[in-house]
Design brief:
Structural class: alpha/beta
């Protein structure tokens, strides 16, 4: 199964056109009259700064507009040692729906056993929970580990794919989708770690809210490993704060792959997982939006995951994110620009697109223009807004109480590290866009190495 139409169009041509347009936008102001040169960047800074303040910072100080998990401890908790609910998942007066947990795994011998044992510890009716692991042509001991685990855990189902199956992670998830019967599907990465009460809190909320999908906050499990993992922990907190604000103002929430709960009916309506993209989660976010399926994001409970430990791994990971993120705008532009989409969602997408993808390219062109004309860069008002918004979001996120691993302490050095770290997008976006414009599309699942309890394995 694959999404219809997502691979349409000339990807290289669209990337080249976008690259040239951003280059012209960054260069042109240098040839204006001196008194007018800062006007384009200043106008955009006022527009995006005002929108960002209203969307992100105001909701952060009045969080009642964001979804709040109900206290279901008394009504839906499966008591330890008590009799499990009957088929269909009844706990007290609260019926818990069936859910399939799905994991696409390739060469995950370091973490797959920990994941399965973690699912076994979840407080959820046994008859309403099943774990599906797709062994995607692993070449390490992942198949043997899964075989041993199946002998101990009846809820574990294993599907296997050959090396030439195609479709990357999306192909693996689509294979599992053919076998699922539960109304809900929770997609996890192999290194995911959930709290024991996650499902019993999450599923009733999703049912009551009528959401098509719910994304859990991603919490870095190893924030103290080094400066890079600490920075990624701040970035994940920032991302959730921004997405909560977007949701509160009628904007668009995006899935993040790990810890995404999907209503199976909504997923099938959107066409399943797109096998022509390198980021199944970002692509699915837009297709759910275009099919009028609402997506929520939650601060608690979080899903823990490992952050990459080195710059090289981070560079590979972020290239994939940038490519998939930009590709979806090219693929779904007609629907995103259609009046059928709510005006608030279109404005939100425009502002996000300008800050996330246009600004880095314009900034590089602006720097080139400054060198050629021997003048000062002109994009700094817009850059000031982007980094100011990022710093405020990091501060708000890391000072917010939450479950899961402790977030980095907010002192000046950590805040400065978080802001400077985000500058890597000003390298990743231009490089990835240039590569997309020059080279044919590559459908490669560039998996992130998961180390589990053995960092020395790197």
């Amino acid at each position: 199964m694959a999404a219809d139409g997502s691979a349409n169009g000339n990807r290289r041509g669209k990337s080249a056109l976008f690259l040239m347009a951003c280059g012209a936008a960054g260069l042109a102001p240098h040839w204006l009259e001196p008194g007018w040169r800062l006007l384009p960047a200043s106008a955009l800074a006022l527009l995006l700064g005002g929108y960002s303040f209203r969307t992100v910072l105001v909701p952060a100080f009045g969080r009642s507009s964001a979804p709040v998990l109900p206290d279901l401890a008394a009504s839906s908790q499966v008591q330890a040692g008590g009799a499990p609910p009957a088929e269909g998942g009844e706990a007290g007066d609260q019926a818990l729906p069936a859910v399939d947990v799905v994991v696409a795994a390739r060469d995950e011998q370091a973490v797959i056993a920990r994941l399965v044992e973690g699912i076994a510890r979840l407080r959820y009716p046994p008859d309403a929970l099943r774990l599906w692991v797709i062994d995607d042509a692993s070449t390490d001991r992942t198949p043997q580990v899964l075989s041993e685990l199946q002998q101990r855990h009846a809820f574990l189902q294993v599907l296997r794919r050959e090396a030439d199956a195609g479709g990357g992670k999306s192909g693996a998830l689509n294979l599992a989708l053919q076998h699922l019967q539960a109304p809900w599907m929770l997609v996890l990465d192999a290194d995911a770690d959930l709290q024991p009460d996650t499902l019993e809190r999450l599923l009733p909320l999703a049912e009551q809210g009528g959401w098509g999908a719910v994304q859990l906050r991603k919490a870095v499990a190893n924030p103290q490993a080094n400066w890079l993992t600490r920075a990624q922990a701040m970035e994940m907190a920032l991302d959730t704060v921004v997405q909560e604000g977007r949701l509160a103002r009628g904007g668009v929430v995006e899935l993040r792959g790990n810890g995404q709960l999907l209503r199976r009916e909504a997923l099938e309506l959107a066409g399943g997982f797109n096998e022509e993209t390198v980021t199944d989660d970002l692509d699915l976010s837009f297709r759910l939006l275009l099919h009028r399926q609402s997506v929520a994001i939650l601060w608690d409970p979080p899903v823990r995951e490992e952050a990459v430990l080195g710059v090289r791994a981070l560079w590979r990971q972020r290239q994939r994110w940038a490519e998939g993120g930009l590709q979806r705008f090219f693929d779904y532009a007609p629907g995103l620009l259609s009046p059928a989409l709510p005006a608030g969602a279109r404005l939100d997408l425009l502002c996000f697109f300008l800050l996330q993808y246009v600004l880095p390219l314009v900034a590089v062109a602006d720097l080139l223009g400054a060198v050629v004309t021997r003048s000062w860069p002109l994009i700094w008002p817009l850059s000031f807004v982007a980094f100011g918004l990022s710093g405020c979001s990091i501060l708000l996120g890391c000072r917010r109480p939450g479950e899961g691993p402790d977030l980095p302490a907010m002192h000046p050095l950590n805040l400065l590290l978080g802001i400077l770290y985000l500058g890597h997008w000003f390298l990743v976006i231009p490089y990835t866009t240039l590569r997309m414009a020059l080279f044919p599309k590559r459908l490669v699942w560039a998996k992130t190495l998961h180390l589990g309890e053995d960092p020395a394995a790197a």
